[in-house]
Amino acid sequence: MPRSYVKEARRPVGRRRDRIRPIVERLAAAHADARIALRFRSPLELLVSVMLSAQTTDVNVNRVTERLFEKYRRPEDYLAVPEEELQRDIFATGFFRQKTRSLRGTMQVLLTEFGGEVPRTIEELLRLPGVARKTANVVAAELGRPQGIVVDTHVRRLSQRLGLTRQEDPVKIERDLMRIVPRSEWGRFPHLLIWHGRRVCDARRPLCEECVVSPLCPAARVSTEPASRGA
Known about the structure:
Low-confidence stretches: 224-231
Structural class: mainly alpha
Distance between the termini: 41 Å
Helix content: 40-55%
Order of helices and strands: HHHHHHHHHHH
Largest sheet: none
Number of helices: 11
């Protein structure tokens, strides 16, 4: 079980529903550039990138896919080469054997059930081998049809620290967030938390004195309004 941050949320700062819009607004102003870090040019490249991103960094995936996407352009391409060759091509992303099986299985299903096109709904995406809810949520959101809220390690940590959930399981955390985050923000909200988590709300040493949501955060280690970064 990963570390829990629920007990850090101790300060009285108000109801979740009252705080969620100001939290979104402040994070959006602070991280106007928040977006997915994976590089892709098509729905298929998006799907492959997200599948390869498990247990590795986005930077590493982008390094691999820069060459991969020149060689593999259609679902058929992933099935046309020997399994060992695809394993070599994605080796640097780690867990390459399992990822190869998932990729080839997904391409087969895309061809037989979806006409070679990446589906847009969570239910259909979950029918693809190796695609779990987090991956399905990312793909659906980036294709313009968010149907849930992506919960990764950053989203989990910040949601707990902000007192938006007391759950540990990602599915239950997502359920809590979907109840309070405006649906129009489902696609952007995870990116805001992810970028804030990387830049400010570190797992070990959160920079509460620089945090734009400190006054709204029950886990904040400061109680005053943060100074503007540009001041």
